[in-house]
Amino acid sequence: MDASSSSFKHHTSSTEPLIKPDSSTTTMTILITGGTGKTGLALAHLLHAANHNVLIATRKGVAPEPFKAITFDWSDHSTFENPFKADAHIDRVYLIAPTVMEPLVDMKPFIDLAITKGVNRFVLVTATQADKGGPIYGKVHEYLVDIGVDYAVLRPTWFIENFGSYAYSIRENNEIVSVTKNGRIPLIGVDDIAQAAFDALVAEKSPNTDYYVIGPELWSYDEVAAAFTEILGRKITHRHITHEEQVALFKMFLPAEYAVLLAMIEARIADGVEEAIVGDPKAIVGKVKLRDYIKANKKLWMKD
């Protein structure tokens, strides 16, 4: 079945967003950790366009124009003061956790410091399957709730843009590999996650809750492969692999423990856990569609 027939509507009307924007202006600064990453840079552009002051935190301390950047590394606590030395007016922070099994170990000291410096709202990005108090991101989510600070936790599903990150397999091997079987995912675009983060950061009233962030269509990886076949004009297949094979692939670019956990989470897609989120009252539904992304970035998967 063509996935375009599987689209679904936002559970609220377009005139009543889950997070209502603040119509006032502010001279305060929003700090973006992971500021040159997929969602961080998209968020920075949205904030800049709306005339909000932005400070980018990256390990290298550099960012594209027109943004100001400072050196910040979760694994180096001596860099935690840098944002506040550069700008004394930071009052809101966008949190992208480090890719480690216990991110709270490094994030707690920074969160505590930020509060003493006047930060009064945090927006944390986790994942659909990262429940409050659960492993990895869930501990950070729980900590924000427990300390009583203003916050929002965004829990996006799997990124549409991941197919760009895995371009080699599609371009060179004409295949997508996964353990998802026939499970379906409401794939989400980075721009939609950035928009949800923007809304949470600038809202007049802090959400103080968590939201799923999902896309407007459900896709199985077989259906994704069919879409690539149609748009690229050559046969792309979805090769079903074992859990062990998926772990080995993830270990090529992730720490071993993290790779094992991520493979387990991806395997749960086959059980329908991502599809079950559709229609949840706390789901923010984006607008970016997979076909549009493939068409706009077609050169990524074209053979030389």
TrEMBL record:
Protein known as: NmrA-like domain-containing protein
Naturally occurring in which organism (per UniProt): Cyclocybe aegerita (Black poplar mushroom)
Pathway assigned to this chain's UniProt record: Alkaloid biosynthesis; ergot alkaloid biosynthesis
Gene Ontology molecular function terms on file: oxidoreductase activity
Gene3D superfamilies in the record: NAD(P)-binding Rossmann-like Domain, UDP-galactose 4-epimerase, domain 1
UniProt keyword annotations, A-Z: Alkaloid metabolism, Oxidoreductase
InterPro entries: Ergot_Alk_Oxidoreductase, Ergot_alkaloid_biosynthesis, NAD(P)-bd_dom_sf, NmrA-like
The keyword RNA-binding belongs to this UniProt entry's keyword annotation: no
Region (Disordered): 1-21
One Gene Ontology term from the biological process aspect of the record: alkaloid metabolic process
Superkingdom: Eukaryota
Residue span(s) of domain NmrA-like: 27-263
Record-stated family: Belongs to the fgaFS/easG family.
Pfam family of the protein (one): NmrA
UniProt keyword Oxidoreductase present: yes
